Amino acid sequence: MSLFSGKKVLITAGPTYEPIDPVRFIGNHSTGKMGFALARAFADQGAQVYLVVGPTALSLEHPLVEVIPVMTANEMFAACQAKASKADIWVFAAAVADYRPKDVATSKIKKNEDSFTIELVKNVDIAATLGQQKRSDQFAVGFALETDQELENARGKLVKKNLNMVVLNSLRTPGAGFKHDTNKITIVKPASVEEFELKSKEEVALDILESIKTEWACLQKK
Questions:
Q1: Which residues are CB-contacts of 152 (< 8 A; sequence separation ≥ 6)?
Q2: 23-74 pLDDT per residue, tens
Q3: pLDDT of 189
Q4: For residues 54 and 32, is the Cβ–Cβ distance under 8 A?
Q5: Tally of CA atoms within 13 A in the half-sphere of 147 that contains its CB
Q6: Strands 25-26 and 18-19: what pairing?
Q7: Rounded distance between C-alpha atoms, residue 68 and residue 12, angstroms
């Protein structure tokens, strides 16, 4: 029987869309494929999964997966807050927008000027905020997409967000990252770093689950 059988797992996936007006939004290129692969992998190993997902063309039907659709970062945070205390494992795989427009126009903004300025305000950091509430019996995994000082920044997130593990995504490898069916990751833990080759996202999900098993088993022995 899998270590995850009967456990509850909260996963975020996909992008968030932050509206500018009824027509336009600020978003990113995330498809949600990595989060969906993780959700299926956990469910296939017997976990009850809460999948909080931003706008995506993907779908997942599994008796152990509850899909919770959201659009904005605030909506994603609210959905995560509602499930976080129930979950044994948190996996923050979504590409959440760091900022949102301060004011959202109620009607379409017309193209009247040569330039246009949007004032942005910071969105809630979902992983960091929930990390402050994390119990010692809960396990939290964050994702990081870095272009400079990758390992240093990933290690910083472990501490700052009270995470047990960070999955560092590559943008430097062809076929990895957004819009691909493959990914190349480095798993950063407090006492170790594991590098993996380019693989399908389904295979990457299994690598992540195995790494969680190893780290979680070590924590339970302490």
A1: none
A2: 999 999 899 999 999 999 999 999 999 999 999 999 999 999 999 999 999 9
A3: 93
A4: yes
A5: 0
A6: antiparallel
A7: 9
- Tell me the CATH class for 8-105+116-221: alpha beta
Active site includes 162? no
Residue with tokens 């472990």: 158
In one-letter notation, the amino acid at residue 199 is: K
Question: C-alpha 108: how far from its chain's center?
Answer: 31
pLDDT digits (tens, 9 = 90+) for 73-99: 999 999 999 999 999 999 999 999 999
User: What torsion do the CA atoms of 153, 125, 205, 85 make, to the nearest 10 degrees?
Assistant: 130
Tokens of 183: 């990914």
Residues sharing a CB contact under 8 Å with residue 191, sequence separation 6 or more, in sequence order: none
Phi, psi of 19 (to 5 degrees): -65, 140
With a cut of 80, say whether residue 170 has pLDDT above it.
no
Contact by Cβ (8 Å): 45, 4: yes
Supply angle C-alpha 70, 73, 75, rounded to 5: 45
Start-to-end Cα distance in the chain? 23
Residue with tokens 């299926």: 40
Residue 17 phi, psi (nearest 5): -110, 125
* CA distance linking residue 71 with residue 32, whole number of Å: 13
Catalytically annotated residue among 28, 74, 153, 162: 28
**In which band, very low, low, confident or very high, does the pLDDT at 148 lie, cut at 50, 70 and 90?**
low
- Residue type, position 110, single letter: K
Instruction: Break the chain into its structural domains and give their ranges.
Output: 8-105+116-221
